[in-house]
Amino acid sequence: MACGWVVCSVATSSTSIPSTAELLLRADWERPRSKQTALGMSDLGGCRRRAGYQYNGYPPEKPSGSVQAVIGTSVHDTADTALRMMRDRGLLPANSVINEEVRFGGLIGHPDLYVDGVLRDIKTIGYDAQLANYKLKGPPRRHLWQVMTYAAALIVTERPVHTVQLDYLVRDSGNSWLWEAPFDYMAVREAMVWLDLIRQTPLEYLARDFAPDSAQCRHCPFFGACWDGHVLDRDERSAILVEDQDAVGWAKRLEDARARLKSAKEDEALAKGVLDALRPNDTGKGEVKLDGYEKVLRWTVSERKNLDAEAVRADYARGGSNPPVTTGSSVKLELLAPRDDGLQHLDEGGRAVLGADEDVAALRQLVLDVGVELDGAVDRVGAAVPGEFRGEQHGCVRAGDQVDCEAYQFLTGRERLVPGAAGERRVQRHAFII
Ligand code: SF4
Question: Quick check: pTM over 0.70?
Answer without folding.
Answer: no
